[in-house]
Amino acid sequence: MTKMQDFTLEEMMIFTVSVLAGFSACMTIILKTLFRSKCKTINLCCIKCERDVQAIIEEEKLELGKLPTPRRRSLAEENKK
């Protein structure tokens, strides 16, 4: 088995950066999955999040143009008032 003294500073830095990059990638995937989920309550370890899922769904539909836009009134309808 090798000792820490056998590694150079460059090798230790490469290892450290690799481990941090892997951890960051995993956290990014987990957070991306949580944000895309439609769950109302999310519990992850000691973090608890409650969200208004219906508002999120409606906002996404609005961004995609799936919600109908209000109909414009004609001049005849405006003049009736």
Structure commentary:
The protein is mostly helical. It has one domain. It is built from three helices and two strands. It has helices at about 10-35, 55-65, 75-80, and strands spanning about 40-45, 45-50. A two-stranded antiparallel ribbon has the order 1-2. Strand 1 and strand 2 form a beta hairpin. It is elongated. The mean pLDDT is about 80.
Layout: helices, strands, pairs:
Blueprint: H1 9-36, E1 41-44, E2 47-50, H2 53-64, H3 75-80
Antiparallel strand pairs: 1-2
Brief summary:
This protein is mostly helical and about 80 residues long. It is built from 3 helices and 2 strands; from the N terminus they run αββαα. The chain has one domain.
Structural category = mainly alpha
The biggest beta sheet, please?
Answer: 2 strands, antiparallel
The span between the termini is 89 Å
| Apparent shape | elongated
Average predicted local confidence, pLDDT: 78
Number of strands: 2
Helix content range of the residues, please?
Answer: 55-70%
Give the radius of gyration: 26 Å
Number of domains: 1
Which residue ranges are poorly predicted, with pLDDT under 50 across at least 5 consecutive positions?
none
| Strand line-up of the largest beta sheet | 1-2
Q: What is the N-to-C order of secondary-structure elements (H for helix, E for strand)?
A: HEEHH
Number of distinct helices: 3
In percent terms, what proportion of residues is strand? 5-15%
